[in-house]
Amino acid sequence: MFAASAGRLICVFRRRTDTATEEPSANPEVVKSGGKGRPTPKRSEAQKRNRQPITAPRTRKEAYQHARGRQARERQKAKEGMARGDDRYLPKRDQGPARRLARDFVDSRRTFGEYFMYLTLLILLLAMVTPVTIKTYVYQFGWPVMLVLIVGESIYLGRRVKKLAQERFPEDNVRGLGFYTATRSMQIRRFRMPQPRLKPGQKDQI
After folding, report:
1. d(Cα 167, Cα 161) in Å, to the nearest integer?
2. Which helix (H) or strand (E) holds 17?
3. Are residues 104 and 205 in contact, defined by beta-carbon separation less than 8 angstroms?
4. Residue 42 DSSP class
5. How confident is the model at residue 143 (pLDDT cuts 50, 70, 90)?
6. 177-185 and 97-107 helices cross at what angle (nearest 10)?
7. Taking CA atoms, which of 44, 120, 169, 195 is between 20 and 30 Å from 32?
8. Four-CA torsion 17, 21, 26, 31, nearest 10 degrees
């Protein structure tokens, strides 16, 4: 459409250029460069796919094997807990703070009782390789001296531990604690159960 103005025609409406871009579609598909090309799965769906199905044993043999494996794991767990001194896995005679005190008291020192087996073997060896006269002295003095030392030490340790337990744990039962202490002191250190928490010389940590 043209309009006249001062002897010339002025174009009112101009034609759109051919370089005009078309309008984008209403729902364009946007694809990120370097993307996976698919929507990211939800976390719950990923966990379901990663979760392994639990299959029940199909035969009696498989059920027996599963039961044996479970029992073996439970025994190993109980053994480790007993070695640590965990009251949940200890027998009743080893439970309680007084019994733990007795174990620490004995384990923090060297005792004659823990060498009982070694001394016995030494006396028997001397009795075999020595003459009859020396053998007689070994039997007459070796055994009595060793027994006196071990019994005397056991009584001393039992009384000390019992008195200390009554002071620290007056509400705990100390019945049989002296015998428990004496038995612990006569065991070889490496075979003690629960395993020793303290080393010889750590008396200040009792």
Report:
1. 10
2. none
3. yes
4. P
5. confident
6. 30
7. 44
8. 180
What DSSP assignment string belongs to 94-121? G-SHHHHHHHHHHHTS--SGGGHHHHHH
pLDDT at 106 over 90: yes
pLDDT digits (tens, 9 = 90+) for 22-61: 444 444 444 444 445 556 656 666 565 555 555 677 788 8
CA atoms of 168 and 101, how far apart (whole Å): 9
What per-residue confidence (pLDDT) applies to 23?
Answer: 47
Q: Which of 98, 99, 104 is nearest to 166 (CA)?
A: 98
Beta bridge partners of 2: 11
pLDDT at 98 over 70: yes
User: How many Å apart are CA 168 and CA 100, to the nearest integer?
Assistant: 12
Global pTM reads 0.63
Instruction: Yes or no: say if 1 and 13 are a contact pair by the CB < 8 Å rule.
Output: yes
User: Which among 171, 170, 193, 198 is positioned nearest to 183, based on CA atoms?
Assistant: 193
Chain centroid to CA 122? 39
The residue assigned the tokens 């056991």 is: 154
Encoded tokens for 68: 């044996």
